[in-house]
Amino acid sequence: GWCVRVLVIVSxxxxxxxxxxxxxxxxxxxxxxGVATKGPLSNATVKAYGIANGQTGAEIGSAMTDSxxxxxxxxxxxxxxxxxRVSGGSYTDEATGLTVTMxxxxxxxxVMQSVGxxxxxxxxxxxPITSMxxxxxxxxxxxxxxxxxxxxxxxxxxxxxxxxxxxxAPMNPRVPGSGVGASADARNYGMALAAxxxxxxxxxxxxxxxxxxxxxxxxxxxxxxxxxxxxxxxxSMDGMRAGTTMMPSTGGRSALATARTNCLQNTSSANMSGPxxxxx
Length: 280
Hints:
Distance between the termini: 19 Å
Oligomer: single chain
Helix content: 10-25%
Strand content: 25-35%
Number of helices: 5
Largest sheet: 5 strands, antiparallel
Structural class: alpha+beta
Shape: globular
């Protein structure tokens, strides 16, 4: 599994082209719905943005999540690639069981290839992993074109061994027995998110959501090496060790794998999912 592999995110540069967007002349309204998960994210703001020439464009829709992280929004008369952005809200941290509010400077994102006019797109997940893919696509040559979006999303699918990071619903390891009937994709997804919470806890971060921002920065250049566009990534710590800590080069690789192992062994809070479903 991903937890024992040292992987490098695909760094395939795609020439600039395509990725245009705009409003349709027929006035057809589309719908996007799904779930925001860092643990299910309650009372968070979800905004959709059009993408023009590979870059974030105008806001085209917004919604609030319910207590289970569900959202649904209308994107009026738009066709083209879409970026979703989640801010605010609170969730139950898998590592501690505490209710955590997303810090004001931290967001989660997801990026989708072009949608057609009036389309209904259901079940789009917005997670730390889709956020990493969006950050990667944005930094590729040409920005968030359809081809770069596809390449970045696939790279993160391969890295975390999840078939489709946009459509597979992560298992919630805090729900007792949730893993018994879950697919391998859903288990891998859910335990990857739990591992991030566990790793943030081990770093004594001031807010665990800071790790999402750090992981996005780390993934943006296609290399999980603790480096972002501005050099080695810094994160704010809390408590007796208040200050900043540098993200180690192994943060997105072996350190995250260790955190996942700790989650699997912790059946009191981080993992109440139970044994996996038997092989067919």
